[in-house]
Amino acid sequence: MIDFVSRARSARAGKRWTQAQVAEAIGKSRPWVAMLEAGKIKRLGEQDRAALITVLEMDRSKRPLVTMDEQALEELLVKAAEMGAERALSRRGISRTRRARRPS
C-alpha cells in the first residue's frame, strides 16, 4: 500500500494538482487525500484505488484487476479532463466565472 500511495502522490505532483483537486475528481474530501498520503488510511478500497489510477493517469501496467461500472469511469474521466482544462486556463489568467467587460 505504501508503494501505491507514494506513486499516487508522485503522479499528483507531476500533474501539478492539489490534494483538493484530486479529492474533487474522485468524490472524496481533501482531508481524506491528505490522510491517505500521510499513511493514516491503512485500507484502500478497490473503487478508490481504481479512481486514483484513472484520474491521476498512473501507470496502466500496475492497474488493479478491478472493474468500475462504465458510468462511474466516464464521470471520472470527464471530471479529470475538465479539471485539467480549467487548470490550463487559470494559468493563463482565464476563469469560467470571469465575464467579458461590456463597453460603457
Can you give a write-up of this model?
By secondary structure, the protein is mainly alpha-helical. It has one domain (2-91): Orthogonal Bundle (434 Repressor (Amino-terminal Domain)), CATH 1.10.260. It contains five helices and no strands. It has helices at 2-15, 19-26, 30-37, 46-55, 70-91. Helix 2 (19-26) packs across helix 3 and helix 2 runs antiparallel to helix 5 (70-91). The radius of gyration is 16 Å and the shape is globular. The N and C termini lie far apart (59 Å). The model is unreliable at 95-102 (pLDDT under 50).
CATH class value = Mainly Alpha
- Number of spatially distinct domains: 1
Helix percentage range: 55-70%
Distance between the termini: 59 Å
Q: What's the Cα radius of gyration?
A: 16 Å
> Total number of β-strand segments?
0
CATH architecture: Orthogonal Bundle
Q: Can you write the helix and strand succession as a string?
A: HHHHH
Mean pLDDT: 76
Q: Look at the helices and sheets and give the structural class.
A: mainly alpha
What percentage of amino acids are in beta strands? under 5%
For this structure, the CATH topology is 434 Repressor (Amino-terminal Domain)
Biggest sheet layout:
none
Envelope shape:
globular
